[in-house]
Amino acid sequence: MRLSTQRPAGHPARAGALRGAHHWRHAFVRPSRHSPPADVAVPPVTITTRTGIRIHGIQTGVLAVKRAHATLRRPAALRLLAIVLDPTWTPLLPILTWVIEHPEGLVVIDTGERAAASDIDSYMAADPANRWFFKRNLPMYVTPAEELATQMRGLGLAPEAVRTVVLTHLHGDHTGGMGFFPYAEFLVARAEYEGQLRRPLGAVRSLWPPCFTPRLIDYDGPALGPFPAIHPLSRAGDLLILPTPGHSYGHQSVLLRDEERCYLFAGDLAFSEDQLRTQGLQGIAHDLDQARATLERTWRFARQTPTVFLPSHDPHALQRLREGE
């Protein structure tokens, strides 16, 4: 097992230690004006695995969430109200995406956000409910230089060459960059897509590309350790999609199996490695029973198999990728 037991150097000791401090007033009051974080993009982290596969971890801006969003507060039935009423915020958190240079082609995991998301009023003008929630509970800061397509080109990778994009789920901060990949097939869990069509929760459908018709994943492959079924993503069998529901209707994660370890691209399965380790539930989780079962399965797998755990909003995920821990 490779999950780190040490808190990496530079861990933010207080809110605002990551790229500047920001404070907001009560959730039902229009947030006070504040300066965005410093206009300095975090450089991508690139590694090459023992089998020669290159992984790029790319940060596409930052966001903040209420503390009740990241950590469940009781009573659980009132967890969404607790988020709205919570006056306290996490430090600014990264919006991470992942690009895998696989022998079978480029694979992108989540697409991050666009610079337009920094102005929620304009960005979500066609969606008043999401505009209200994101503005008061999920502010995002993205510069044009931080957009995924721009950073991929800086790495010599053409977004137009991408044929496969796996979306861990359909929340806005994971899907904003879908338009960067006009020739890609998008892979979404069936439960996620159908749930968000039926009753959108965190998905901003007004921003989806026209005629968005993803391939729906049902997990028809064999079991993998504690996971009852998987979906093979590569013909070589080294890239797999795992069902990890709970955070949303049909959240999923991607596993890359290398000779010495696995890399688990975990979306919002947990907000940090610490949360996985302690089996801590999120306040924003759609289904707490599913979220609890997913945390338990993932922890069991990580204890059995050396695993680099890479969720989307963990400030230390890029460091773990670099160090292979």
Notes on the structure:
This protein has 325 residues and is an alpha/beta fold. It has a single domain (45-323), classed as Metallo-beta-lactamase, Chain A. It has helices at 67-70, 79-85, 120-123, 128-137, 148-154, 172-175, 190-198, 273-278, 288-304, 317-323; strands at 45-48, 54-63, 93-102, 105-109, 140-141, 164-166, 185-189, 215-217, 231-232, 239-243, 252-257, 262-267, 307-311. The longest helix is centred in the last third of the chain and has 17 residues, at 288-304.
Q: Give the fraction of residues assigned to helices.
A: 10-25%
Q: What is the C-level CATH assignment?
A: Alpha Beta
Overall tally of domains: 1
Count of individual helical segments? 10
Q: Could you describe the largest sheet, including whether it forms a barrel?
A: 8 strands, mixed
CATH fold descriptor: Metallo-beta-lactamase, Chain A
Mean pLDDT, to the nearest integer, reads 89
User: Runs with pLDDT <50, length 5+?
Assistant: 4-35
CATH architecture: 4-Layer Sandwich
CATH level 4 superfamily = Ribonuclease Z/Hydroxyacylglutathione hydrolase-like
Order of helices and strands: EEHHEEHHEHEHEHEEEEEHHEH
Please report which band the strand proportion falls in: under 5%, 5-15%, 15-25%, 25-35%, 35-45% or over 45%. Answer: 15-25%
